[in-house]
Design brief:
By secondary structure, the protein is an alpha+beta fold. It is built from nine helices and eight strands. Helix 2 packs across helix 5, helix 6 runs antiparallel to helix 8 and helix 8 packs antiparallel against helix 9.
Length: about 300
């Protein structure tokens, strides 16, 4: 058990209480919930003595879709916008690591979008011996990406602030600044706890016309460097990750990827999607079996 899982239950509880207090016939719509989150973030900024011009704040937030605001806490929104407001493109990537209440150690990455960004970031974190509990990937309308990774050490403890945080930020920045790099080699053994479980991989696709992308839902067994491996498979096929919702419960990974082709178009070729699904299933299931044999 950890603070991130605790926060999931707390969020569910508070959302349920809020819905019951409002009345099930009076549940706020998406725009109202986004406005509430933004308002709470503005209050956090004010409470901390951070002044940010309203027009500047609106210009920055207008670059993001509603999903970004709904999937981040007001505390995160305040943290992000403060960092982004002071960042220049020639100084990117901007990488911060901090401990957030109710979530734990969180890595924040803001940079221009580029090929293999998801695979590289996940690969660096895995190579550093970190476990990714959650990943939220969001792309702006002007070609930037803002990614949040909730992490812990492989033994389930929190990374130590200071030197460890600096190491994480330094390694990520070094890798993401190298535009010639498209993969990170990771060699980590499966933990004894995970060796007892095998979760058959399942992959399903559908089209999201509102987002203008293809949605891939994947369920498989959790293991070290799982996201890095998935990202490498995407990268070899010129597939871009526009957004992602990553969830790990126990030994089971349940992830949703919003993907496009290299030209940022939905992937509608059914045969191509079938081959992608088959490759993921074959690779991930073989990886589980091989890891268990080594154990």
């Amino acid at each position: 058990w950890n603070s991130w899982r605790d926060s999931l239950l707390r969020t569910l509880y508070l959302s349920t209480v809020d819905a019951l207090e409002r009345g099930l016939d009076n549940i706020p719509g998406e725009e109202e919930r986004v406005a509430e989150r933004q308002g709470e973030a503005v209050k956090i900024l004010a409470d901390n003595g951070i002044e940010l011009d309203e027009s500047r704040r609106k210009a920055l937030w207008d670059r993001f879709g509603n999903d970004y605001f709904l999937r981040h806490t007001p505390q995160e929104l305040a943290w992000h916008i403060t960092a982004i407001a002071g960042a220049r493109d020639n100084e990117l990537p901007l990488i911060l690591v901090d401990f957030l209440e109710d979530q734990g150690a969180t890595v924040f990455v803001y940079t221009q979008d580029r090929d293999h960004l998801f695979a590289l970031s996940a690969g660096v974190l895995a190579k550093l011996g970190l476990t990714i509990l959650d990943a939220r990937i969001n792309t702006t309308a002007d070609g930037h990406t803002i990614d949040s990774w909730i992490i812990m050490e492989a033994d389930g403890t929190q990374p130590e602030p200071g030197r460890r945080y600096l190491e994480i930020a330094t390694e990520l920045r070094k890798t993401l600044c190298d535009l010639s790099q498209n993969a990170v080699n990771v060699n980590r053994r499966l933990s004894p706890r995970l060796r007892h479980f095998i979760t058959p991989t399942s992959v399903h696709f559908h089209q999201d016309n509102d987002r203008n992308c293809t949605v891939m839902e994947l369920v498989t067994g959790d293991r070290p460097a799982l996201l890095a491996l998935i990202g490498r498979i995407f990268g070899r096929r010129g597939i871009r990750v526009e957004a992602a919702k990553i969830g790990t419960i126990g030994e089971r990974a349940e992830d949703v990827f919003f993907i496009t082709d290299a030209l940022r178009r939905p992937i509608t070729d059914k045969k191509l999607l079938e081959r992608l699904g088959a490759t993921l299933s074959r690779t991930l299931d073989y990886g589980q079996a091989a890891a268990n044999r080594k154990g």
